[in-house]
Structures are given as structure tokens and as C-alpha cells.
Amino acid sequence: MDLVDRKSPGHAPVRKILDLARYPHHCNVTERVKGDLIRLKLSKGDVLEAAIPHLKNPALPLYCELQTMYEEIDIMGYIFCPLVVKGLELYVKLILPPADCELNERLLMLASHEPKFPCPEVGR
Q1: What's the pLDDT band for 123 if we cut at 50, 70, 90?
Q2: What's the predicted TM-score (pTM) here?
């Protein structure tokens, strides 16, 4: 897990994630995330709403990690740890899978749960 340099052109997807996070219907969740959100009594909208100010504030840590879930192409996962959602500190991972056109762009929430390990101390 590496800290994202938000000024780096290599992390341009952060701007796209910020744009899509404003619209929860543009975000899909895995079955595991769905179960975690139900258990925490949260919605994906709650998580995305908390992610927006986090993405806008460069003082808050944002991490990246290469995801190798797709055989054709590796995708960068963006990790919020901690992301405070309605008083809960969560580990949240979002990816922006490839899309054939802007109309089909969607976020995919791969994780939204209490951190299993302590979040890094950078910026805290």
C-alpha cells in the first residue's frame, strides 16, 4: 500500500472517482461489501458521501494498491484508511474498472469494513 501523490498525473483516476462518487447509482458493490454495509447499517451512499471530502482534502491520506483481479489488465485500487462514516472508522477500497465509454464508467467498491489491521499513521 503506497501513499498517493495527488499531484502526480499517474493518479488522474482520483478525479474521476471524485466525480462518480457524487452519484451512488454509478457505484457497484461486491456481495461481501453489501453484507458488511448491512451489518454496519450503512449504505454505499453513506460511504461515498464520506469519501468526497476525503478525496478533496490532500491532507487526508489516500493509498493505492495494484489490483490483479482482471487477467487482461491490472487496475489501481484506491484505499481510504481510515474513512470516517457516521462515526465509524472504515477501511474502504474503490476501483475504477475499464469502460468502453464515459457513459459506462462505474466505481466498484471492493471493501468497506472496520480495519483488520491498524491504518498507517501518515497524516494522522
Answers
A1: very low
A2: 0.87
- Confidence grade of residue 124 (pLDDT, cut at 50, 70, 90): very low
Question: Could you tell me if 62 and 3 are in contact, meaning their C-beta atoms sit under 8 angstroms apart?
Answer: yes
Q: What is the pLDDT of residues 52-62, one digit of tens each?
A: 999 988 888 89
27-34, Cβ contacts within 8 angstroms, sequence gap of 24 or more: 27/94, 27/106, 27/107, 27/108, 27/109, 28/106, 28/107, 28/108, 28/109, 29/108, 29/109, 29/112, 30/108, 30/109, 30/110, 32/111, 33/109, 33/110, 33/111, 33/112, 33/113
| Interacting residues of 27 by C-beta distance below 8 A, sequence separation 6+ | 20, 21, 44, 48, 94, 106, 107, 108, 109
Domain boundaries, the chain: 12-113
Render the burial of 74-106: b for 16+ CB within 10 Å, e for the rest. ebbbbbbbbbebeebebbbbbbbeeeeeeeebe
